[in-house]
Amino acid sequence: MSKLHSSSVAIWMARVSVLAILSSSPALADPNPDRDVFFGEQHIHTSWSFDAYIFGNTKATPADAYDYAKGKPLKHALGFDMKIEQPLDWMGVTDHSEYVGVIQQANDPSAALAKSELGKELQIKTPADIQRVYLQLGRTMTSNQPIKELVSPELMSSVWDRNNEMANAANEPGKFTAFNAYEWTSTPNSRNMHRNIYFKDSAHLPEFPFSSFDSEAPEDLWAWMDKQRAAGIELLAISHNANLSDGLMYPTEVDSKGRPIDEAWAASRMRNEPLIEIKQIKGASETHPLLSPNDEFANFEIMSYLLGDPAGRFDGIRGSFVRDALRNGLAFEDTRGYNPYKPGFVGGSDSHNAAAPYRQDNFYGGHAAGDGDMKGRMEGKMFAGLDPKYENPAGLSALWAEENTRDSLFEAMKRKETYATSGTRIKVRLFGGYDFSDRSLWGERWSEHWVKEAYKRGVPMGSDLPSTETDKAPSFLVWAVKDPTSGNLDRVQIVKGWSASGQSFEKVYDVVWSGDRKPDPVTGKVPAIGSTVDLERATYENSVGSAELSKVWTDPDFDPSVHAFYYARVLEIPTPRWTTIQAKELGIKVPQVVPATVQERAWTSPIWYAPGESKERAAAGVRIADIGTGGKTLDQQALTGLIVGKTVWLKNLVTGDVFRTVWDATGQRVLLNLDPSHPIPQHFGNSAQDAYLGVPVHYEVTDGKIVENFGNELLSWTAYQVSERTLLARSNEFGYANYEVIPAPETLTDLNTVKR
Known about the structure:
Helices cover 22% and strands 25% of the residues. It is an alpha+beta fold. The two termini are 23 Å apart.
């Protein structure tokens, strides 16, 4: 599998790869129509953020953050130097708009605020003051009851103007881009709903930012953004830390105001919020093992935490991860004709040090004195209810743009030709189309112009791929080059999602990999690459893996009648995690609460496929709205008689699969006889493994519904009698009754099973 092309083409590709690795981002010159990649930081805080100051970062300004990004060292709150491993191409400082600059002024003896009684309450003199002031202001944010003296327009405008002056002074077109930006920090009931707001240029800016004190609702933020755009101010929002939103970031039923999600809501979200941050210091937001049980790489930097660590609560899963949102977006489009969830991917840090660590061997936390001490981190010194060992180095945002200027980079973000990395500088391109072949793009004719030809024949990451009249399966051209200062590449995968009749599915394909490994003959999965990590020495060797991987891959399971998305995920070989490295430095045991090794990675923005209007859809589930007077909902008594203490065989009308459900009289439900090779609809958890092990889920029959748990959320089944048929509908399948009660089958093979 490693021998992809002829020897002459391989030599050419190797030459191109060396140039790609050695070359840095170009200085101001003629724009490159084939675009270059520019790595940057879209999410960082300075002492002007109230919490950063409280954590101990009392001096670093936005100007210092830009200097750090350009390669200058910066003093940590604890006195040591922080220095980036390699300068960035661009940055946006995103200090909180809420209470921005006020703690700094309260602790400045020359400022008027410091001389007031309120200012004296906000002064940090002892370690105990850190917790006291953080909770005092933090609670006003979660309750949305701001201290009026601290949010005056005059104060906000003065700080905003100084922030923009520093961004403009740091901006060097062609060499380094400094964006005008801030963070809207909505935290309703400790659930993270934060967004970073980016402006295209400094000539068109609002008088001061819209903050969560103006409104906690993202709908109101989007409305404000629309007004700014109408006034000639170009801007966009980037949501972040969906993994800490307790399911609030990606709703499927009602918006933050309790109104049904409709086409206007979807359009407003996508118009204003084209990007999401998929990974940062406080965890990854791609997916979760409970959402993606067949993805062996889903367990990556998972963090279960709610801001402020509220007592008696824990973070939810459904609605908190972007792959789940992408699948639900397809279900929206398939069943309702609109899609609110088509974001591109970026990475970030969310560091509150005005500096961020991007590498495992340079990790110093992200919250000043709160997690900046190595010994305290490794001992599990709790910070705001969080064990710092669960933190990880920052992610990076990569933008494919013509040149390193505000205008060009902003347009790249708008069109979503972006990708994220876990902190290393993997280079990756993804194109989708119908006219790709190894011969036409990798042969002698196009060997020097493959990017130009890929743009001509297809679409890049972040784009829509239209259907064809011939129903030809799409192909995807993926190319990845390693970071020369990091681990070799293990593999490149394509993550696919699709939806039909309110159900959504996913599959992860290994498309190209290093070495001579062979896919498992049963599962089709490529075995894990050998690990060279020495845990005792916290070292590794680049004796396995590849410097470059490339492939033209065609979807072998393509169904032209269903909506789908595709994105590439690039994985490095295993390397030591920062906790392993620092355990060695301290001479202590490697902690077992987090993995000892990590596979750094990159995620491209998706490419979406939509069937044409003429495509026929296979008959599948039954719309609940179409049941009408010919059917009836089973009441509490009838539903209890149907399932409690019974074994019921069901057929999934979308996939054709049949399986057994056992509902015992004590309130435990198990699924049995599931085929792990067949796609399982969303939100069943690890149902194939649970079926094999006989692991039950609690259920109750209440108010005419079967109610069961998924994570910390309740899902329900409703039963309908339609003539002689008994149909069941799950509450998360967008208004479809997709399951039919059937007699016990003689065999489990169903020729109608659809495999995609």
